[in-house]
Amino acid sequence: MAGRLWVVALALAALLVVDRGVPVSGEKVVFSRMPICEHMAESPDCPRTFNPVCGTDGVTYESECHLCIARMKTKQDIQIVKDGKC
To answer: Where is the Kazal-like domain (predicted)?
Structure first.
């Protein structure tokens, strides 16, 4: 029984890792993360701190908040490829 649970846990972990791969170019796969936007209103005021993130659309955003605004405006599933500039 414990062996089956271990196999199921490994399979679920593998699915979570594989599901996050986002093709950026023809051959390259980059792992991304979802920005946290659920707490934001329709037209939020983002803090003025510069904390850049690189989006899956290839755009460098001033912060995760600005990426969330772009997601709301464009209705695109833009995720964070990495912290910092693209």
So the answer is: 31-86
C-alpha closest to that of 55 among 40, 38, 34, 73:
34
Q: pTM for the whole thing?
A: 0.60
- Report the distance separating Cα 83 and Cα 15, nearest Å: 24
Phi-psi region of 73 (alpha: psi -120 to 50; beta: other; left: phi over 0): alpha
pLDDT tens-digit series, residues 17-46: 444 454 554 545 567 888 888 776 666 788
Separation between Cα atoms, residue 60 and residue 57, nearest integer Å: 9
| Rounded (to 5) percent helix, strand, coil in the chain | 35, 20, 50
